[in-house]
Design a protein that fits this description.
Low-confidence stretches: none
Number of helices: 4
Mean pLDDT: 86
Radius of gyration: 22 Å
CATH class of the largest domain: Alpha Beta
Shape: elongated
Largest sheet: 8 strands, mixed
CATH superfamily of the largest domain: 2,3-Dihydroxybiphenyl 1,2-Dioxygenase, domain 1
CATH topology of the largest domain: 2,3-Dihydroxybiphenyl 1,2-Dioxygenase, domain 1
Helix content: 25-40%
Number of strands: 8
Distance between the termini: 30 Å
Number of domains: 2
Strand order of the largest sheet: 2-3-4-1-5-8-7-6
């Protein structure tokens, strides 16, 4: 990008670009740079969906019978069970009211790196948080919780 900026400045200094044209071109470059830096946030999959439930055993049975999902892991202290297929978590169940609510979904990001993703999110004016309920996440403009994970 530096050679492009240098060429723009040279054109401006030689009178080939007005000040307004220079500022417009630099603004476009800045926008393109911000979009390019977001490459670490290249969403690749829905990692899992988290559902609030009232009866863990009943819900585990339902997802097992209907979809063939099995228990991948469990966090009994926090009342969380993660179900999936082939070791990959698809649905996370958590005992907490109100039941039947999708409390968050997780987007898997190619080449996930927490520090790089945090920097990119801050560049978008977002402050990522981490909690036991939602993991590493941000909220969308309407308040939906979006967890960010590796693929």
């Amino acid at each position: 990008m530096e050679p492009v900026i240098s060429d723009l400045l040279t054109s401006f200094e030689r009178g080939a670009l007005s000040r307004r044209e220079l500022i417009g071109a630099l603004a476009l470059l800045a926008g393109a740079g911000a979009a390019a830096s977001a490459a670490t946030l290249k969403g690749a999959s829905i990692n899992h969906v988290s559902v609030l439930v009232t009866d863990m055993a009943r819900s585990i049975d339902f997802y097992g019978r209907v979809f063939g999902l099995t228990l991948v892991n469990e966090d009994k202290a926090n009342k969380i069970a993660r179900l999936g297929a082939g070791g990959k978590v698809l649905v996370s169940l958590r005992i907490e009211p109100p039941p039947g609510v999708i409390d968050h979904f997780a987007i898997g990001v190619d080449g996930f790196n927490r520090e790089a993703v945090t920097a990119d999110l801050k560049g978008f004016g977002l402050e990522p948080r981490e909690t036991i309920e939602f993991g590493f996440h941000v909220k969308d403009p309407d308040g939906a919780v979006v967890q960010i994970t590796g693929v």
